[in-house]
Design brief:
Pfam families: PadR. The chain is of the alpha+beta class. The chain is 67% helix and 17% strand.
C-alpha cells in the first residue's frame, strides 16, 4: 500500500468541506484560498482548486463577483449561496460525527496497546 497515496486520498475527501468553510468567512479570492489550503497541508496542487470551484458554482453552492483591481485585471471573489450555507452546515454535522467516530476507534486502539 502506498502511504503517500493514502494521505492524498484522505485530504481530497475533506477538500470540498475546507473550501466551503473558507468561503463561509466572507468574500475570498481563489489565490487566498489556495494559500490557506497549502499552508494547512490540505492541498498543494493549484490545478485541483479551479475545477472544484467551478463544480461547486455549477451545483449552486457558491457564486462569485468580479472586483476591479488597481494592479491588474479584475479579480473573482467567491461567496456562499444560501444553498451553500445549508450544505456546509450539513457537512459540519457529518464532520463532527465522523471525527467523534474516528477518535473513538483510535482511542480504543490506543487503550489496547
Amino acid at each position: 500500500m502506498d502511504l503517500e497515496n493514502a494521505k492524498v486520498q484522505m485530504r481530497k475527501g475533506i477538500l470540498e468541506f475546507c473550501i466551503l468553510h473558507i468561503i463561509s468567512r466572507g468574500e475570498v479570492y481563489a489565490s487566498d484560498m489556495l494559500e490557506e489550503l497549502t499552508s494547512a497541508k490540505i492541498m498543494v496542487v493549484e490545478g485541483t482548486l479551479y475545477p472544484l470551484l467551478t463544480r461547486l458554482k455549477n451545483s449552486g453552492l457558491l457564486d462569485y463577483k468580479w472586483v476591479e483591481s488597481t494592479s491588474g485585471p479584475p479579480r473573482k471573489y467567491y461567496v456562499l449561496t444560501d444553498d451553500g450555507k445549508t450544505f456546509l452546515d450539513q457537512l459540519k454535522e457529518t464532520w463532527i460525527e465522523l471525527q467523534s467516530s474516528v477518535n473513538q476507534i483510535t482511542k480504543e486502539n490506543e487503550n489496547k496497546e
